[in-house]
User: Which sequence fits this backbone?
């Protein structure tokens, strides 16, 4: 798959690469070696790299000047550094920035998150970080043994008017392909397109791989259940949202293809990739230092839910140090059957606002699974929004409000899942609410 195209007409193999291609292959080779290191050995390398970021931030960022230890520090000292929240990043973007950015890291660009927590943020990135992003993308392809000469279909959220049906076509899978290896084409469609049109578009193109959001893929699966068979895909790739277990089961049953999920963030890059042999995720420890902590600040043991706290290892222009991204995840156990020694996340649970809050003060993850609701109202889509301590709005799309006997059954299912007898307000809506970046959440708390 990854024998590159030579830039010399007289040396076809082994290939002679461009300067950028050589850098990519150098980093990629180190990544493939790193994933089998003893965990302690890789953690030491990770800690040394994190120290470089901390030292630079302490010297060049006004925000971090007094926030970080002035001399050497241990992992225990680091765990006492105050968390950086999304609100902090939004409010202090200019003072967090390092002046100057390291010249060797290349041009600086600004990225903006979609703001799925309600707090859109900005952060700066560099050409160096883009290089690493491409290398981790290649690692994902290698792990999943993808044929990059095949056709990739992408259905993602874009501004209105961009990649609208009948979509657009590119010659390769991405910028890295033009500097490293030849690939097949990519066809792209805006996820604003109705699901019926998306299904028609996939049937027209018959791609080998599909990349989209879990909720969009779940809707496509329901569409194909009602109307025809899905295309014969080799693999489904998901990003941008929490892939719920019931979604994974439904999608794989309908499409008959495996799912490879990824956990990433615009401001950080790759955080974790799904293991090619299991449903859990390997933390990309060469890119990010990950802590899973409980509300009291202690480390969450394997099997427990904890807050995801991240520190970028290569962002020297907008350092994200002990960054509380707003997600929760379940810490996993090693060893993994695949032989890779990266630390594991058993599951990414979702955002803080995806937790239900009870009148007695308890907060927990709802055991909500819409499959039982679909059995009562086939073809409908649901979204639950907690609007008060004792009230939840039930939004029903693609269906009128059901009869009273059906409402009573749905009420029992929902309240059993939420763990409290909430007052439920059923509302018929044209479509379920999505974030400004096109992402969908089955349950949200507005409290």
Assistant:
């Amino acid at each position: 798959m990854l024998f590159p195209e030579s830039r010399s007409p007289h040396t076809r193999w082994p290939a002679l690469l461009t300067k950028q291609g050589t850098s990519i292959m150098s980093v990629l080779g180190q990544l493939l070696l790193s994933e089998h290191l003893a965990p302690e050995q890789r953690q030491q390398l990770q800690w040394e790299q994190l120290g470089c970021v901390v030292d630079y931030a302490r010297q060049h960022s006004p925000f971090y000047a007094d926030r970080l230890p002035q001399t050497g520090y241990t992992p225990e000292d680091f765990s006492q550094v105050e968390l950086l929240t999304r609100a902090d990043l939004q409010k202090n973007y200019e003072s967090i920035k390092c002046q100057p950015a390291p010249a060797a890291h290349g041009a600086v660009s600004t990225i903006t998150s979609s703001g799925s927590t309600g707090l859109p943020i900005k952060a700066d990135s560099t050409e160096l970080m883009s290089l690493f992003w491409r290398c981790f993308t290649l690692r994902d392809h290698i792990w999943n043994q993808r044929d990059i000469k095949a056709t990739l279909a992408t259905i993602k959220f874009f501004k209105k008017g961009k990649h609208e049906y009948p979509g657009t076509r590119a010659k390769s899978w991405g910028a890295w392909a033009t500097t490293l290896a030849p690939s097949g084409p990519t066809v792209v469609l805006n996820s604003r397109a109705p699901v019926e049109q998306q299904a028609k578009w996939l049937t027209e193109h018959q791609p080998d791989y599909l990349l989209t959001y879990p909720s969009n893929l779940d809707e496509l699966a329901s569409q194909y259940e009602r109307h025809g068979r899905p295309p014969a895909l080799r693999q489904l790739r998901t990003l941008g949202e929490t892939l719920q277990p019931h979604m994974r089961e439904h999608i794989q049953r309908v499409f008959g293809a495996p799912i490879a999920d990824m956990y990433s963030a615009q401001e950080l890059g790759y955080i974790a990739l799904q293991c090619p042999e299991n449903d859990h995720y390997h933390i990309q420890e060469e890119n990010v230092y990950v802590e899973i902590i409980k509300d009291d600040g202690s480390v969450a043991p394997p099997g427990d839910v904890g807050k995801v706290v991240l520190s970028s290892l290569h962002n020297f222009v907008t350092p994200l140090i002990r960054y509380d991204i707003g997600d929760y995840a379940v810490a996993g156990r090693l060893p993994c059957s695949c032989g890779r020694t990266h630390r594991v996340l058993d599951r990414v649970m979702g955002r803080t606002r995806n937790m239900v809050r009870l009148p007695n003060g308890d907060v927990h993850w709802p055991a909500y699974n819409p499959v039982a609701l679909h059995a009562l109202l086939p073809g409908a889509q649901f979204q639950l929004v907690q609007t008060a301590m004792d009230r939840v709005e039930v939004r029903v799309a693609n269906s009128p409000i059901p009869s009273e006997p059906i409402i009573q059954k749905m009420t029992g299912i929902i309240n059993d899942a939420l763990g409290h007898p909430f007052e439920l307000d059923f509302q018929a809506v044209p479509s379920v609410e999505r974030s400004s970046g096109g992402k969908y959440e089955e349950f949200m708390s507005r409290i």
